[in-house]
């Protein structure tokens, strides 16, 4: 009887050791292949425009620049900018878009800004740099960041990105 128990114990130990469930602990983690985001170099080759309520959502009218002029602070830094006088006071929606192509636009939902006076000058910025490898606190989004400056108190800047909302007062 002891021999049968010993044989059975050895058989069970071998079957557990050789079973597929035992090898799961050593199995490689499956990779989820997604379309990788465009790199900063790829995005730099794109001509960017501002589209929104202030220009009738024309995605080929107001070209953003990365040459150190017209609201852009530093040339060739991957941050595209454009200063525009907004004709009417109020809240308007906008986004950065590849000029003439609605298929490449940031954010996917609209962003908003508020002006307190007619013809108020605001500067739209679109940062194509990738900050995901930076040390410190992880920021979301890590790339393709839209921003606006030039509002005056008590107006606000609101950005919506992938369902997350943040409000920054300037």
Q: What would you say this structure looks like, in words?
A:
With 170 residues, this protein is an alpha+beta fold. It has one domain (40-169): Immunoglobulins (Immunoglobulin-like), CATH 2.60.40.10. Helix content is 15%, strand content 38%. It has three helices and nine strands; from the N terminus they run αααβββββββββ. The protein has helices at 2-18, 20-23, 40-44, and strands at 48-52, 62-63, 79-86, 90-98, 101-115, 120-127, 145-149, 156-161, 164-169. The strands form two sheets. A six-stranded antiparallel β-sheet has the order 2-1-4-5-8-9, with no helix packed on it. Strands 3-6-7 form a three-stranded antiparallel β-sheet, with no helix packed on it. Strand 8 (156-161) and strand 9 form a beta hairpin. The termini are far apart. Residues 21-36 have low confidence and may be disordered.
């Amino acid at each position: 009887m002891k021999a049968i128990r010993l044989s059975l114990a050895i058989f069970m130990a071998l079957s557990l050791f050789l079973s597929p469930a035992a090898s799961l602990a050593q199995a490689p983690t499956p990779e989820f292949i997604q379309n990788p985001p465009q790199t900063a170099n790829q995005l730099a080759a794109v001509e960017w425009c501002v589209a929104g309520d202030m220009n009738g959502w024309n995605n080929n009218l107001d070209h953003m620049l990365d040459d150190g002029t017209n609201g852009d602070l530093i040339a060739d830094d991957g941050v595209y900018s454009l200063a525009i006088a907004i004709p009417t006071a109020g809240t308007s929606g906008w986004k950065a878009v590849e000029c003439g192509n609605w298929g490449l636009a940031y954010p996917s939902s609209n962003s908003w800004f508020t002006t307190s006076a007619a013809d108020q000058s605001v500067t739209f910025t679109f940062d194509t740099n990738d900050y995901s490898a930076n040390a410190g606190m992880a920021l979301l989004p890590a790339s393709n960041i839209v921003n606006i400056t030039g509002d005056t108190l008590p107006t606000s800047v609101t950005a919506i990105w992938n369902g997350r909302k943040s409000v920054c007062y300037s």
